[in-house]
């Protein structure tokens, strides 16, 4: 059964009962998402079970000259997969945590590249949620996006 009280994330309290309207819920999550703020990530979620993050590769994201560290992409993938699972779990007053995820790196990402990560719920069971996602790179001045990583994650559902 859904939680009847508020829960705390990143030193902020958010009430999810009664559930706020969808745009307010996503806006509230963006306000309290310290990891997203630290990495310049902005979440949008068109519907429960879907998520999109955007970010630009900054100097602090680099490992070798001009190339982003794989951990930055892994963090973005975990975040977007988890957000897709979380947007579904929120509808029943639940939260999620990562059980495991895998990522395939397809192309390097460079300083200034704009990333768009998308994910969706592929399976929602009673206790586990499975999501898949793709990170795309938009090079400034180029029209087409390029897929740079693909991922799959499993998340545990638990009461808020």
TrEMBL record:
<dbReference type="InterPro" id="IPR029069">
    <property type="entry name" value="HotDog_dom_sf"/>
</dbReference>
<protein>
    <recommendedName>
        <fullName>HotDog ACOT-type domain-containing protein</fullName>
    </recommendedName>
</protein>
<feature type="domain" description="HotDog ACOT-type">
    <location>
        <begin position="47"/>
        <end position="160"/>
    </location>
</feature>
<dbReference type="GO" id="GO:0047617">
    <property type="term" value="F:fatty acyl-CoA hydrolase activity"/>
</dbReference>
<keyword id="KW-0378">Hydrolase</keyword>
<dbReference type="Pfam" id="PF03061">
    <property type="entry name" value="4HBT"/>
</dbReference>
<dbReference type="InterPro" id="IPR006683">
    <property type="entry name" value="Thioestr_dom"/>
</dbReference>
<dbReference type="InterPro" id="IPR003736">
    <property type="entry name" value="PAAI_dom"/>
</dbReference>
<dbReference type="InterPro" id="IPR039298">
    <property type="entry name" value="ACOT13"/>
</dbReference>
<dbReference type="InterPro" id="IPR033120">
    <property type="entry name" value="HOTDOG_ACOT"/>
</dbReference>
<comment type="similarity">
    <text>Belongs to the thioesterase PaaI family.</text>
</comment>
């Amino acid at each position: 059964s859904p939680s009847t009280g508020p829960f705390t994330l990143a030193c902020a309290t958010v009430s999810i009962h009664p559930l706020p309207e969808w745009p307010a819920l996503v806006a509230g999550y963006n306000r309290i998402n310290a990891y997203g703020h630290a990495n310049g990530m902005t979440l949008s979620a068109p519907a429960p079970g879907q998520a999109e993050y955007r970010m630009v590769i900054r100097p602090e994201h680099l490992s070798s000259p001009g190339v982003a560290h794989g951990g930055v992409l892994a963090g973005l993938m975990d975040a977007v997969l988890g957000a897709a699972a979380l947007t579904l779990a929120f509808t029943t007053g639940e939260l999620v945590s990562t059980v495991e995820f895998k990522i395939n790196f397809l192309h390097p990402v460079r300083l200034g590249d704009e990333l768009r990560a998308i994910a969706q719920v592929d399976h929602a069971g009673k206790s586990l949620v499975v999501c898949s996602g793709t990170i795309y790179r938009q090079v400034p001045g180029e029209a087409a996006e390029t897929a740079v990583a693909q991922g799959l994650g499993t998340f545990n559902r638990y009461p808020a």
